[in-house]
Amino acid sequence: MAHQITQTQRFSVFKWLAEWLREHQRLGDLRDQVREERKHLAELDDDLLRDIGITKEQALRESSRAYDDIPARRLRFWMCCQYSVTFK
Q1: Which of 3, 26, 52, 57 is most buried, taking the most CB atoms under 10 A from its CB?
Q2: Which domain holds residue 17?
Q3: Cα within 13 Å of Cα(25), Cβ side
Protein backbone atom coordinates (compact mmCIF):
# COMPACT_ATOMS: atom_id res chain seq x y z
CA MET A 1 0.00 0.00 0.00
CA ALA A 2 1.45 3.35 -1.04
CA HIS A 3 1.82 5.95 1.65
CA GLN A 4 -0.01 9.18 0.89
CA ILE A 5 0.96 12.45 2.47
CA THR A 6 -2.00 14.17 4.02
CA GLN A 7 -2.53 17.93 4.22
CA THR A 8 -1.61 17.84 7.93
CA GLN A 9 1.66 16.05 7.19
CA ARG A 10 2.55 18.56 4.46
CA PHE A 11 1.93 21.42 6.86
CA SER A 12 4.23 19.84 9.43
CA VAL A 13 7.02 19.74 6.85
CA PHE A 14 6.56 23.44 6.18
CA LYS A 15 6.41 24.09 9.92
CA TRP A 16 9.67 22.19 10.37
CA LEU A 17 11.30 24.13 7.54
CA ALA A 18 10.14 27.45 8.99
CA GLU A 19 11.56 26.49 12.41
CA TRP A 20 14.84 25.42 10.80
CA LEU A 21 15.10 28.78 9.05
CA ARG A 22 14.39 30.64 12.30
CA GLU A 23 17.05 28.55 14.04
CA HIS A 24 19.54 29.33 11.28
CA GLN A 25 18.79 33.05 11.68
CA ARG A 26 19.24 32.91 15.47
CA LEU A 27 22.59 31.17 15.03
CA GLY A 28 23.57 33.85 12.54
CA ASP A 29 22.62 36.47 15.12
CA LEU A 30 24.90 34.76 17.65
CA ARG A 31 27.75 34.76 15.13
CA ASP A 32 27.21 38.47 14.50
CA GLN A 33 27.22 39.16 18.23
CA VAL A 34 30.47 37.24 18.75
CA ARG A 35 32.06 39.05 15.79
CA GLU A 36 31.10 42.44 17.26
CA GLU A 37 32.47 41.46 20.68
CA ARG A 38 35.77 40.41 19.10
CA LYS A 39 35.93 43.69 17.19
CA HIS A 40 35.45 45.65 20.42
CA LEU A 41 37.99 43.47 22.22
CA ALA A 42 40.63 44.35 19.62
CA GLU A 43 39.93 48.06 20.17
CA LEU A 44 40.46 48.01 23.96
CA ASP A 45 43.54 49.77 25.28
CA ASP A 46 46.26 48.05 27.30
CA ASP A 47 44.94 49.25 30.67
CA LEU A 48 41.49 47.78 30.08
CA LEU A 49 42.95 44.54 28.76
CA ARG A 50 45.12 44.28 31.86
CA ASP A 51 41.98 44.79 33.99
CA ILE A 52 40.33 41.76 32.39
CA GLY A 53 43.55 39.75 32.55
CA ILE A 54 44.62 39.37 28.93
CA THR A 55 47.41 40.79 26.83
CA LYS A 56 47.11 42.77 23.61
CA GLU A 57 48.44 39.75 21.70
CA GLN A 58 45.75 37.50 23.18
CA ALA A 59 43.09 40.05 22.31
CA LEU A 60 44.31 40.33 18.73
CA ARG A 61 44.49 36.54 18.39
CA GLU A 62 40.91 36.22 19.65
CA SER A 63 39.67 39.02 17.41
CA SER A 64 41.23 37.41 14.33
CA ARG A 65 39.33 34.14 14.72
CA ALA A 66 36.99 33.14 11.91
CA TYR A 67 33.47 34.53 11.70
CA ASP A 68 31.84 31.18 12.44
CA ASP A 69 34.37 30.06 15.06
CA ILE A 70 32.13 30.33 18.12
CA PRO A 71 33.71 29.11 21.37
CA ALA A 72 32.24 25.77 22.47
CA ARG A 73 31.28 27.08 25.92
CA ARG A 74 29.39 29.98 24.36
CA LEU A 75 27.61 27.70 21.90
CA ARG A 76 26.59 25.28 24.68
CA PHE A 77 25.25 28.17 26.74
CA TRP A 78 23.30 29.44 23.73
CA MET A 79 21.84 25.98 23.11
CA CYS A 80 20.84 25.65 26.76
CA CYS A 81 19.00 28.96 26.55
CA GLN A 82 17.31 28.01 23.28
CA TYR A 83 16.20 24.52 24.23
CA SER A 84 16.23 24.50 28.03
CA VAL A 85 18.68 21.60 28.11
CA THR A 86 21.77 21.10 30.22
CA PHE A 87 25.18 19.75 29.29
CA LYS A 88 27.73 18.24 31.62
Answers
A1: 26
A2: 9-83
A3: 6
